[in-house]
Design a protein that fits this description.
Blueprint lengths: L2 H4 L2 H12 L3 E6 L4 E6 L7 E6 L7 E2 L12 H10 L1 H35 L2 H14 L2 H11 L4
Antiparallel strand pairs: 1-2, 2-3, 3-4
The structure holds zinc ion.
Zinc ion binds next to loops.
């Protein structure tokens, strides 16, 4: 398993952002599988990072989240992407594909919903609205009342 698999999805995403925003100051190969890195973070000094691409659990970073733990943090991922830009491109493509799929899925649902609403009669529409108003969150109920009724 590589660093990407060991890290949480959130750390990979945040690491990608760090990489894209040029927060990785150094990413240099130190031996066959290891890279040393320095990453600008929230502290005054850059975080010191070492990644091991074969044994991800041997990687470390001195940020508060990962220091002394066997956690692959966003700084380690950022260094990984800097050392392997092709992997960053691959990750970006996966993200784009995912969002495109989600968008298409949403469009399909919207289409189906529109069809369904057009077919429904008044009684059915009323039931759907009651359902929404009473099963949904209170703000939804209040917003509906504010928008469509004149009650002082
Ligand atoms: Zn870190």
């Amino acid at each position: 398993m590589g660093l990407m698999e060991v890290a949480s999805g959130k750390s990979v995403y945040r690491g990608y952002e760090y990489y894209i925003h040029n927060k990785v100051l150094v990413a240099e190969k130190v031996d066959e599988y290891q890279y040393h890195g320095a990453v600008e973070g929230t502290a005054d000094e850059p975080y010191e990072v070492l990644i091991d691409v074969i044994h991800p659990r041997k990687s470390h970073c001195n940020c508060p989240h990962a220091d002394g733990k066997r956690i692959v943090c966003k700084h380690q991922i950022a260094v990984y992407f800097k050392a392997f830009p092709e992997e960053a491109k691959k990750y970006k493509k996966e993200l784009d594909d995912y969002y495109e799929e989600e968008e298409q899925r949403y469009d399909r649902i919207e289409e189906e919903l529109a069809k369904h609403l057009k077919k429904a009669n008044k009684q059915e529409l009323m039931e759907m609205i009651w359902d929404l108003l009473y099963e949904g969150p209170e703000w939804q109920f209040n917003r509906f009342v504010d928008r469509y009724l004149n009650i002082d």
